[in-house]
Amino acid sequence: MTKDWRRVLIHILSVLPALWLFWQMSLWYRFLPHDLSANPIEYITKFTGDWTIRFLLITLSVSPITKFTGWRILKYRRAVGLYAFFYALLHFLNYMVLDYFFDWPLILEDIFKRPAITFGMVAFTLLIPLAITSFKFFIKKMAKNWQKLHQLIYIITIFAVIHNYMMVKADVLIPVIHAIILASLLCMRVYLKYNNRKASIKKQLA
Ligand code: HEM
Question: Which residue's C-alpha comes closest to atom 23 of ligand 1?
């Protein structure tokens, strides 16, 4: 059993939105009063999509937070990243099963003809190898290639935020907030990289 209560807490908090959603879906399925609005399928797509973006942004924030605060939270990044994949999978399953009911010709047409869906699909597809290789076995086996592959998280989040912006029907405030957070995280990354390089040049000259 794990003694790391922080890890346990992260799992509990991360799984709570999904548990709430499954509970609401079970009420909807039994024709009981639920909180999934008058259009449950649209609500579920939005709910799972929002949680995917949140987990992607949290995954990207772990490294800068560690560097700026010294908190030792890097070891939780993989778990949070896996939850981004978990919610993206629910989002895609909802689209494929409840929304399009496995209508593959229509799904393929949607993916190839609607740029917003194309961005979402690319983001989701790129998340799959990251999720598969997020286990310790692959980290050891792939060594430096593992880090290179997992840099894809930046491209994935950029695509996801574009998809989010294009999909939203009325108020673009939330996608714009997501884009601002993402831009800030990317700037921090560039700043930290530049600082690291400067420090290593100074070391070599000393
Ligand atoms: C990492 C991958 C993805 C993320 C982060 C994501 C995120 C989101 C978000 C946040 C929304 C809500 C927009 C709003 O506020 O109305 C949304 C909507 C939507 N997404 Fe995704 N998405 C992803 C992948 C996909 C994929 C693979 C598909 C289907 C192939 C898809 C199909 C849709 C559809 C149809 C909607 C519109 C729902 C509606 O308003 O009726 N998404 N997505």
Answer: 120
Indicate the DSSP class of residue 39: -
Q: Where are the domains of the chain?
A: 37-205
Q: Which of 167, 168, 178 to mutate to test the pocket of ligand 1 (most atoms within 8 A of CB)?
A: 167
DSSP secondary structure letters along 102-161: T-HHHHHHHHHH-HHHHHHHHHHHHHHHHHHTTSHHHHHHHTHHHHHHHTHHHHHHHHHH
Exposure string over 85-98, b if 16+ CB within 10 A, otherwise e? bbbbbbbbebbeee
pTM above 0.90, yes or no: yes
Residue ranges of the chain with pLDDT lower than 50? none
95 lines ligand 1 (CB under 6 A): yes
* pLDDT tens-digit readout, 11-28: 999 999 999 999 999 999
Q: Report the nearest atom of ligand 1 relative to the CA of 39.
A: 41
